Structures are given as C-alpha cells and as structure tokens.
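Margin note from the TA: students keep mixing up input and output lines. Inputs are the sequences; the output is the structure of the whole complex. Example:
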Amino acid sequence: MQPSEIELAVEEVKRRTLASLRGNLPRLVYLASTRDYNSGRYHHEGLANRFTAEISACALAICHEEVFERMVRSSVAELVNELQSYIHSTAESPDDFVGAWVRLQPYRVLIPLDADRLSSEFFFSNLRVALAILGAPQESHRDNPRGA
Amino acid sequence: MTTVGLFIALGVVVVAAVLFWVFWTGRKPAEPGCDRGEAAGGAAVVLPPLYLIDRIFAAEDFRFVFTNAPPQVQRLFVEERKALALLWLAETRGKVREAFVLYRRVARRCAGLQFSVEGRIALKYVLIEALALILAALVWLWGPLGARRIVGYSAALAEELAVLAARASVELRSCALRPTATVATNE
C-alpha cells in the first residue's frame, strides 16, 4: 500500500528536521515555532514547496502532537534532564533561563492547538516542578538530579 | 442483627431507587418533533487517556521529587499532583455523565426496555459516582498516592461504562420507536 502524501510529509519532517534535534523539548519548541500565533496554522516554506501548504500543515500538526504526547508520558526525572540539556544548548545562564521561564511561562505556547485540558495542565505542572527543582539552591544532602 | 438488618434494608432501598429511576425515565413519552435521527445517537465519549492517569499517580515521580528536591519543591509537587488528580476526577465524571445522559436520551425513544443492559449501565453509573466521591476525599486527605489503589479500578470502570453506553446506544438505533400518539393521548 502506497503511503499517503501526508505520511510522506511526516517522514520528511522527522527525517530532515527532527532527527537533527536532540531531545523532545527542542523538537517541541521547533514545531511550535512553525505555527503562526495569530492563526494557529502551521507553515514551513520548504515543506510547502515539496508538498502542498495544507499537507505540510497537517504533517507538522501530526508531528507536534506526537512529540507532545511523548513529553506528557515522560517522568519528572526525564523532564528535568530534558530541560538541563535544552538550557545547555541555548548557552544561556541556567539561572537566567529558569528565571525567565518561571516568570514568562513560555512553555504555555508549546502545546498543540487541540491538546486536551488534562494533558496540557499536566505538562505545565511538570514543567513548573522541573523548573523549581533546577532553580532550587543545591544542597549537599540531595542527590544530583542528573543522576536520576 | 438489627445493624445487619438496617444495612440490608438500606441496600434494598438504594437498589429499588435505582431500578425505579431506570424504569421511570424509560417510560417517559418521546418528545414531539424528535425523529429517528436523534435515536441513532450514541457517539462515543472520549475519556482522558489511561497513560495520563498512570503518570499523574506515578510513584516513580514522587520518589524522584522526594529524593532530589528541597521541602518547598516537594510541597509544590504534592499540591500540583493533588490538583491534577481532582481535575482528572472532575473530567472523568463529566464524561461519564455525558455518556449516561446520551444513552438515556436514546433509550427513552425506544419501545422495549432491555432490563439487563439498562440495569448494568445504571448500576455502573451509580458505582462510579460513589467511587468518585471516595477518591476525591482520599486525594484531599492523603494526596494522590493515597488514592492509587482504587484509581485504576475507577478508570477501568469509567471506560467500561462509556463503551457499554455507546454500544447500547448504537444497538438501539434499530429499535422500534415509541408511538408518538402516546404524547397526544397523555396531554
């Protein structure tokens, strides 16, 4: 059975773009960034040229939902590791990064448009906890969260 | 003996009330203007995914936070998970109620009352509502971990009810509708 155009477009996104990003959080950030904040529509120039704008939007939405579900299924320990890796990749100071994310809560725009309320709230809650763990002063009696 | 008798009497009253409700709502005449299309209802109600419930109540996360985070973060985590557990409960109850109301609306249109199916659905619904109250109390008092043991059972029961109600609604699609002349006679 021949794969549909949408399936081919999804493979294209995974193979060409997502594979080069290490971790689910960078992938989530990237996929959310392809979405227009005003309309909620996904757009990727290269993908739209290869397929159609509608198919590429659909493929990006599918990938976004998959990555989001993987993040929702992650444990708090995995999320802390994801955040640490992501902070390291941005080359920002961890304190500045955590401070900004706690105040601005930019993770709220990372979720797919059709994400259900419970999954969304769970994701936000886990990130709040992960940020609190990373932002807490290190104490000698605590194990290093990286070791979890 | 008196105490046992009292509990038996209470149980009989509850069962009788449920059965009365099932039969009474089943006897309501069809509203004028409704057509077979509405009787075809039975769209499946989507409950929160089971993996999400596993994650909300995951002991693994509690172990990690209580090993790696300071007390104020531990308190934050427990409050967050409490709120999520109560949100899950509220959403599940809402969806179960939706499935049950949808099923009742369809069943009311049909001439024959299938007691075994009606009774099963009604009893499961009552059980879920009772469990939801118990779960809410457990979560409030002891946090999500205190309710873990009956969460899985409640989630499975809710899923079962939603599927049963949807299936029964679909099966009732081919039932004989109540005669609309009954409405005119009763007025």
